[in-house]
Structures are given as C-alpha cells and as structure tokens.
C-alpha cells in the first residue's frame, strides 16, 4: 500500500481550515491542521510534509515569521510553502512572501481548482522523491550485504541488478512523465526546479547501477547522496 503524503494547513480561523480541507480532500492525502505558527512548528518536529499551506495574517507568530523558522531548520527547509492571504498590500508584500521562502503567494478568495492543482504537483514530486529514497536504500542494503536480499535470501548478482534496474526504471518513467506535464502546463519555476533536481538524482543512481554491470569495473560505486 502506497503511503499517503501529509499536507500541513496553517490558519488561525477554523472556517478557513475547513474550507481548505474541502478543497484538498479530492487529493486523497493526509491533511493536518495547525491553528497557529507555534502549532505548525510543533507538528513539523515529528512528521514529514509534502507541502505547507500557510496563512499570512495570524495573531502572535504570523506567516512570515513561521516560514523563517521553517527555513532555518535543516529538517524542514526544503518543504514547499504556499502563502495564503486575505489582504493584498501590493508587490512589496508579495515580494516579502517569496523572500521568506514561499514557492507561491495566493490572495483570497482563490480559485479552488488552481489551488488544488498547485498542491497536487508538490505532492507528486514528494512521492517521487520518497520512491527514489526507497530505491537508494535498497541498493545500499544489497551492496553492504554482499548481494543478499532484505529477507536474507541470496540472489545471483545479475538477477539482483536486473531487479534493481527494473524498479529504478519505473521511477524514471514516472519522473519523465511528470517533467513533461510540468512543461505542458507552464508550472511554477519552483516545481520545475524540484523536478529537475529529482531527475539529476535519478541519473546518479542509474550510473551507480550501470557501473555494477559485469565488465564495467571491480569496485562498487558510491550511491548518490539524497540531500
């Protein structure tokens, strides 16, 4: 069973959180509520999130300050943040949102279809990255175990490489389709950049597997970093 991605919804008004849940429920992912910046930071200590929808105008710690804390933490700095605001103070206010690390800045009332489409892109990128990490972890396990599978059964090296290559090929195919979709839809620059980063990591992992093919060398290559 594929694990669902978590989406963090941050707003001090319960009716706004309810509206976001209604809009995003069709994505069939796990929606997590936070009614303040402090509550959001607490949730980020224990869970991994695909994207954060963050209200700008909140009492106490506002959206800008919350985003600054998120971006300072190594664990959470790469989570995409979409700012939501009911007040439009002009270009300078929007620029402040992007400067705080947001990938998008949307004024209320917003188009539910547009918001859902933007969130779905980051959820899909998150899922592809999770698949890549799983394949990399499996490769490390196989290399460190001297060709033994995760359950302890020995496998022929050629068969093992073929299995890993097939699994990686499936992720590569999905990543390529996602990149084409982003190009066709003229997606946000941040989403395109994230997809390109994913493809680079896939290329590194493919090279590591190719280097293990018989006749390509005796040394085991290092698996590319996932950072």
From TrEMBL:
PROSITE patterns per UniProt: RESPONSE_REGULATORY
SMART domains named among the record's database cross-references: REC
Keywords: Coiled coil, Phosphoprotein
Gene3D superfamilies documented for this protein: 3.40.50.2300
Domain Response regulatory: 6-123
Residues with PTM 4-aspartylphosphate: 55
Coiled coil: 161-188
Identification of the protein by name: Two-component system response regulator
Organism taxonomic ancestry: Bacteria, Bacillati, Actinomycetota, Actinomycetes, Kitasatosporales
